[in-house]
Design goal:
Helix content is 33%, strand content 26%. The chain is α+β, with helices and mostly antiparallel strands and 353 residues long. The chain folds into 2 domains: 192 residues, Nucleoside Triphosphate Pyrophosphohydrolase, CATH 3.90.79; 122 residues, no CATH class. Strands 1, 2, 3, 4, 5, 6, 13 and 14 form an 8-stranded mixed β-sheet that branches.
Length: 353
């Protein structure tokens, strides 16, 4: 099992190197992570490459507000982030201590990437407020729907009566409900009366009132960027809204902040309880990777300001020419920039993958 993530760094206008971290939301019963700082990372899912898993976790937990390149559109997409990580990033590989000694130690891969400096924390805060409002509106409907124990499922928007017939809404009437059903074959709406007992009719009225609130919110904000964000899904049949929800993976972090490298080292030593345990222990190695990447980026910038080399001159490979970062035990590796397709993507602990 592997986990992966992205550690972004940049340079402030005053020249200080800073890294971007996120704070986990408060979660009752989660002592290891609730309200603690870490990079943007998570488990690599089955079928994903490590870079793909890291990109997906980064996009979700950062609310897609951090472009890795100045030309990258916001909200960022996992595919373009993954592509950028493969082309230009520094990998820091860490071996985590398995809880059960009988299991192999999990591997964590952090992609260290230099990004343009900007006030991403303010953008994150503003966007998260909007998405939370959206989530609260949608969840109010689903709570009402869940509480309606007497109602059959066929009364709810989105229910498929058949491959061609989908319930798109309803109106509570005396003694029952008038269902609005989209007929794909006819390309039109049809209405069907469903008779209900008194208790079910009251619950139907509450459900449809809550659903109209959702529809009203979506209509009022149809041109707002929050409904176009990848965290928000609005399901439609033809032009009719039949479902709306927020992907909870995008709400795992509650705060984002730039940390100076010296400030972070000091905070981890003095206040370790504010950081996720594994991240806090890995900070010295991660920051070593940041310093290596920053030095390589500065060197590259200087080279671009010089004249192009004469034709036929030897340039060498910038990754292989760099001294590898690491400790004497070899438990972690700072593997240089990602190479072209075909070059082994990992060294040391991950060379077999």
């Amino acid at each position: 099992m592997a986990t992966a993530g992205v550690l972004c760094f940049s340079e402030r206008p005053d020249g200080r190197t800073v890294v971007l971290l996120g704070r986990e939301k408060e979660t009752v019963g989660w002592k290891q992570g609730s309200n603690k700082w870490s990079s943007f990372s998570g488990r690599v899912e089955a079928g994903e490459e490590v870079a793909e898993g890291a990109a997906r976790e980064f996009v979700e937990e950062s609310l897609a507000v951090v472009p890795l390149l100045p030309s990258m559109a916001v909200p960022t997409g996992a595919a373009e982030v993954s592509s950028a990580l493969r082309k230009k990033s520094r990998r820091v590989e860490l071996v985590m201590q398995a809880r059960d000694p009988s299991f192999p130690s999990p591997i964590h891969v952090s992609f260290v990437y230099r990004v343009p400096y900007a006030d991403y924390p303010a953008r994150f805060r503003a966007l998260r407020t909007l998405i939370m409002e959206c989530d609260n509106r949608f969840r109010a409907y689903y709570r009402t729907k869940k509480a309606a124990e007497s109602l059959p499922r066929l009364l709810f928007p989105g229910y498929k009566l058949s491959p061609a017939l989908t319930v798109v809404g309803g109106e509570q009437r005396a003694g029952g409900v008038d269902l609005s059903i989209w007929d794909d074959a006819a390309g039109d709406l049809v209405t069907q009366r469903v008779w209900l007992p008194a208790q079910a009719a009251r619950e139907a009225r509450e459900v449809y009132e809550a659903w109209r609130e959702v529809l009203s919110y979506i209509e009022r904000n149809k041109n707002h960027h929050v409904l176009l964000h990848p965290a928000v899904t609005v399901q439609r049949v033809n032009r009719h809204v039949v479902g709306a929800y927020v992907n909870k993976c995008y709400l795992e972090k509650s705060e984002m902040r730039w940390w100076g490298t010296e400030e972070l080292e000091r905070a981890v030593r003095q206040r370790p309880h504010e950081f996720r345990r594994f991240f806090g222990e890995a900070v010295p190695k991660l920051l070593a990777g940041v310093h290596c990447a920053a030095a390589a980026a500065t060197s590259t910038e200087k080279e671009t300001d010089e004249e192009d080399p004469a034709p036929g001159s030897s340039q060498g490979d910038e990754t292989s020419s760099e001294a590898p970062c690491g400790d004497e035990e070899g438990s972690w590796h700072c593997c240089g920039r990602a190479g072209p397709p075909g070059r082994p993507r990992y060294r040391g602990t991950l060379s077999s993958q």
